[in-house]
Amino acid sequence: MKPKAICYFIIMLFVTGMIACGGDDPEPESTETQTPTTTASQPAEETPTVGRDIDFAAEEQAIRDLYAVYTVAHGDKDEDTLTEVWLSGESKDIFTAWTFWAGTFEKNEGGKAVSKAWAGIFRLRGGKMEVDITYIAIDSRGKEAILRGAYKWGNQGGDLISALKKDGTDWKIRAIDYTGGKHGKQVKDMVNPAHTFGEIEEE
Question: pTM for the complete prediction?
Answer without folding.
Answer: 0.72
